[in-house]
């Protein structure tokens, strides 16, 4: 299968890339920082030399770049079997006093990126009547909490996008899975003082996404909700 993963240079995205590479799939990867992205590409290619792994740096919060990345993938002329809309950014804040412009930035990176990339890739999936789209939401898409602010609003919106897409794609044979992870240790948590053992690993999220991608065409995992064993922080 061909797997497109955004935000793949580190964290969940990198773990998802590794999990699919181990299972013998080919990858198209994207994130903004070219050095970090190509470093990840080289490390994966070294471990899985038989896999085709390609990468394009792009800032997916820009509509033109999200579309350009999608067109670059389509340019290879291979079917996109799985799209993981994972790129995202966490910034805490509160509606009443977070910095001006934070909502716009959070919406651009957490929602519009997935919306525009999906719209670029989905016509080819519809044509083939096959494909699986994962949208990386959050427990912050399900529950409001103090200091959630613009991040939580954007993740609620992403869940709305994902659930609408699920309904639309039923007759087209395309699966849509909304992923709602609680805290899992990635760079986002570095320096926070959180004990990595208290929360999940990026590999936990990757394992569930891979498992959900392996079912028969007539089964769709609609929601994946995951929390640390001890519950939310
Ligand atoms: N870790 C958690 O506890 C947790 C919990 C719930 C949900 N999530 C969600 O899971 C996703 C991944 O989180 P993570 O913890 O793995 O984050 P991370 O370690 O910070 O990685 C984020 C990835 O996204 C890329 N990225 C950020 N902005 C981008 C943009 N505008 N265009 C393209 N790529 C971009 C980053 O690379 P560049 O910076 O180079 O672009 C990086 O590859 C996010 O959507 C996050 O909201 C995380």
Give a verbal description of the structure.
The protein is of the alpha/beta class and 233 residues long. It has a single domain (2-226), classed as Rossmann fold. The chain is built from six helices and nine strands; from the N terminus they run βαβαβαβαβαβββαβ. The protein has helices at 11-22, 34-47, 63-74, 102-128, 149-169, 202-212, and strands spanning 2-6, 26-31, 53-57, 82-85, 131-136, 174-181, 184-185, 200-201, 223-226. The protein has a seven-stranded parallel sheet with strand order 3-2-1-4-5-6-9, with helices on both faces. Helix 4 (102-128) links the parallel strand 4 (82-85) and strand 5 (131-136). Helix 1 packs across helix 6 (202-212) and helix 3 (63-74) runs parallel beside helix 4 (102-128). The longest helix has 27 residues, at 102-128. It is globular, with a radius of gyration of 17 Å. The mean pLDDT is 97. Bound molecules: NADP nicotinamide-adenine-dinucleotide phosphate. NADP nicotinamide-adenine-dinucleotide phosphate (NAP) binds next to helix 1, strand 2 and helix 4. This is Short-subunit dehydrogenase. Belongs to the short-chain dehydrogenases/reductases (SDR) family. InterPro entries: NAD(P)-bd_dom_sf, Sc_DH/Rdtase_CS, SDR_fam. One of its GO terms (molecular function) is oxidoreductase activity. Keywords: Oxidoreductase.
């Amino acid at each position: 299968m061909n797997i497109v993963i955004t935000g793949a240079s580190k964290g969940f995205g990198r773990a998802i890339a590794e999990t699919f590479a181990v299972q013998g799939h080919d990858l198209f990867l994207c994130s903004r920082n070219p050095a970090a992205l190509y470093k990840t590409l080289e490390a994966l290619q070294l471990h899985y030399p038989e896999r085709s792994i390609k990468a394009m740096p792009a800032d997916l919060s820009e509509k033109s770049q999200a579309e350009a990345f999608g067109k670059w993938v389509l340019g290879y002329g291979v079917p996109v079997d799985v799209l993981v809309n994972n790129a995202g950014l966490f910034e805490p804040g509160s509606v009443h006093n977070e910095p001006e412009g934070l909502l716009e930035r959070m919406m651009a990176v957490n929602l519009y990126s997935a919306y525009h990339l999906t719209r670029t890739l989905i016509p080819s999936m519809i044509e083939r009547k096959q494909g699986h789209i994962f949208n990386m939401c959050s427990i912050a898409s399900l529950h409001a909490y103090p200091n959630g602010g613009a991040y939580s609003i954007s993740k609620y919106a992403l869940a709305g996008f994902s659930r609408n897409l699920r309904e639309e794609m039923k007759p087209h044979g395309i699966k849509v899975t909304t992923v709602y992870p609680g805290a899992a240790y990635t760079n986002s948590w570095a320096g926070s003082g959180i004990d990595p053992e208290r929360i999940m690993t990026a590999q936990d999220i990757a394992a569930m996404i891979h498992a959900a991608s392996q079912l028969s065409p007539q089964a769709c995992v609609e929601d994946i909700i995951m929390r640390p064993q001890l519950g939310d922080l």
